[in-house]
Design brief:
The protein is of the alpha/beta class. The protein has twelve helices and 15 strands. It has helices spanning 13-24, 45-48, 51-56, 68-78, 92-97, 99-120, 154-173, 195-207, 228-240, 257-267, 313-318, 327-346; strands at residues 4-8, 28-33, 58-62, 82-85, 125-131, 176-182, 185-186, 214-216, 222-223, 226-227, 246-249, 255-256, 272-275, 282-285, 291-295. The strands form four sheets. It has a seven-stranded parallel β-sheet with strand order 3-2-1-4-5-6-11, with helices on both faces. A four-stranded mixed β-sheet has the order 8-15-14-13. Helix 8 crosses helix 12 (327-346). The longest helix is centred in the first third of the chain and has 22 residues, at 99-120. The termini are far apart.
């Protein structure tokens, strides 16, 4: 008999990759989607349009982390062996503008699911999507599962509540509940408002003559970037472990946003020269002197997270998980994907 999984946030980057992974492993997958007046299922459309998959193995339900009744109904109906809570308002910059909604979704939403599991008495394993943003103003380098948290934005604050709620329900009610403290993980499916896709799409559009320049905030922030499909496999591995626990998934390598920009242009045969300082700094093409990157302080965070780098040794030791795609490979995958798509669309 097939295992059953329930994924919140199934239409997102991670949700779509995880759904593919689980379907390939023979799971029946249930996904929670929010009602929207615009179509928001592009990442899973190929799964839903496959009639054999849709009828037998892939089922979507309307629900929302702000609505306990819908969550309880979906959990009770699907009777999942595993629940992956990936849904969130996950954009840090937006969380400063919408702190209450971010908290209601990312913090209380997790509580609603865990309390639903407890009250319904369903025996299931629970995965909580935690984040490296929990470390914020980092207290040690690199960060591990024992590094003290110091969140620096409403998104991270909400995720901190979810992290400890997951631990509390594990200890208080003997639930199989694990936190995945995932460092930045990107892909061709990353949301277009996130800095990595903003860069790779911007590079493609600039070099194809469709956009004048890329406008960014703090390009000296350092991040630990990995490839999203590999991190989704790590989520699954956490719920196959003998005991519930909390794990860092990361590459143990850090790069600045500036390096990401330079590497993306390099993939398409261009080099960047930097001129000026702070918000007056400009990125100029070596080949023709054209300004293609500029800084706008409106994109700065009120409190910045300057450096994130994670040590995944525990995940390697207990789960056997290791990242496979390095920084240069990741940037190349994303840049070539966006360049090809942008070029195709521009010629239609």
């Amino acid at each position: 008999m097939s295992k059953v999984a329930l994924i919140t946030g199934v239409t997102g980057q991670d949700g779509s990759y995880l759904a593919e992974l689980l379907l390939n492993k023979g799971y029946v997958v249930h996904g929670v989607v929010r009602r929207s007046s615009t179509f928001n299922r592009e990442r899973i459309e190929h799964l839903y349009l496959d009639e054999s998959i849709r009828e037998q193995s892939f089922h979507l339900h309307y629900g929302d982390l702000t609505d306990s009744s819908s969550l309880n109904r979906i959990i009770e109906k699907s009777e999942p062996d595993e629940i992956y809570n990936l849904a969130a308002q996950s954009h840090v910059h937006v969380s400063f503008q919408m702190p209450e909604y971010t908290t209601e979704t990312d913090a209380v939403g997790t509580l609603r699911i865990l309390d639903g599991i407890k009250e319904l008495g369903i025996k299931t394993k629970f995965y909580q999507a935690s984040t490296s943003e929990l470390f914020g103003k980092v207290q040690e380098i690199p960060q591990t599962e024992t590094t003290p948290f110091y969140p620096r934005n409403p998104y991270a604050n909400a995720k901190l509540f979810s992290y400890w709620t997951t631990v509390n329900y594990r200890e208080a009610y003997n639930l199989f509940a694990s936190n995945g403290i995932l460092f930045n993980h990107e892909s061709e499916r990353r949301g277009e408002s996130f800095v990595t896709r903003k860069i790779t799409m911007g590079v493609a559009r600039v070099l194809l003559g469709l956009q004048d320049r890329i406008i960014l905030g703090n390009i000296d922030a350092k991040r630990d970037w990995g490839y999203a499909p590999e991190y989704c496999e790590g989520m699954w591995m956490m719920l196959q472990a003998a005991e519930p626990d909390d794990f860092v998934l990361a590459t143990n390598e850090t790069h600045t946003v500036r390096e990401f920009i330079e590497e993306a242009f390099s993939v398409l045969g261009e080099n960047i020269i930097w001129q000026g300082e702070n918000e007056n700094e400009l990125g100029v093409l070596y080949s023709n002197g054209k300004t293609v990157v500029s800084i706008d302080k409106r994109y700065y965070r009120p409190t910045e997270v300057d450096l994130l780098i994670g040590n995944p040794e525990k995940a390697a030791r207990i789960l056997g998980w290791k990242p496979k795609t390095n920084f240069k490979q990741l940037v190349k995958l994303m840049t070539l994907s966006d360049y090809t798509k942008t070029k195709t669309i521009s010629h239609l």
